[in-house]
Fold this sequence. Notes:
Layout lengths: L8 H9 L17 H15 L2 H14 L5 H13 L3 H13 L5 H6 L10 H16 L1
Amino acid sequence: NWSCVDDNIASIKLAEKLGYQRQDDYEIVLLIFDEAMNLAESAYRHLLAGDYHEVIKRYEAFFQLCQKPPLWAYLDIARAWAGAGDEKQAFGYINQAIENGLRDRDELESYPELQRLHSLEAWKEALERMEALASEV
């Protein structure tokens, strides 16, 4: 028996490599009593479903409650803004993620919602800024 969440691609691939076969899908219900984390979890589920406007709404409320948001929150809302077609907002959050410590270019480039931004000058500038900050360390 092997269980993992549906977006844990590495775990799924490992299970398949070991010969496990997918049998059942089921929903996991999380009880999160922290309002900010509840908003973030809900936003992430909407992100996986491609419901970008709900993601934005929830993360905007999340950011109001968090004094120091984690990097993944900046990336998730950037993905949502890009998915909703607002490049300016997407780059705003990408740049905030970089300013707050994002240094993993591969991660940033891996998100499908951000793919269409790769050809823009602002993308090149963001990557250059990330590399410059990484070299300062």
